[in-house]
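To assess whether ligand presence alters the predicted conformation, the chain was also submitted together with zinc ion. Input:
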Amino acid sequence: MSSEKAPSLLPSILKMKCPNCRKGNMFAHKSIFPLGSMLQMPDKCPKCGQEMELEPGFYYGTGYVSYGLTVALLAAVFVAYWVIIGLSYTDNSIFIALSVAVALCLLLQPWIMRMSRVLYLYMFVQFGKGHHHH
Ligand SMILES: [Zn+2]
């Protein structure tokens, strides 16, 4: 048993930290700008050496993850609008709520793309049980 306390899972995911040590950053740049290098990742975690791309093309599967995240976000924004502002059949508030949800999803697309990579790597790499190909 290690006496070192593991950083909690959820904050580590939200801060996009390496799944193996939960300390190193998964992305090379904190800012999403410029967008062209938004998804740049180091080859290995700067803290523990965990490989960020387990095999060539590892992140092709993230399309499904970002699709799921987008749908979940759409639903969440729609429900939040419903609860906070209210929807009615007598005016076009449903269309406004949908537009707001879609606009937010488009705005958050860079975050969704990053988050889907984070979630994807967390599915394959467990804390302290680094995944190495050597
Ligand atoms: Zn690490």
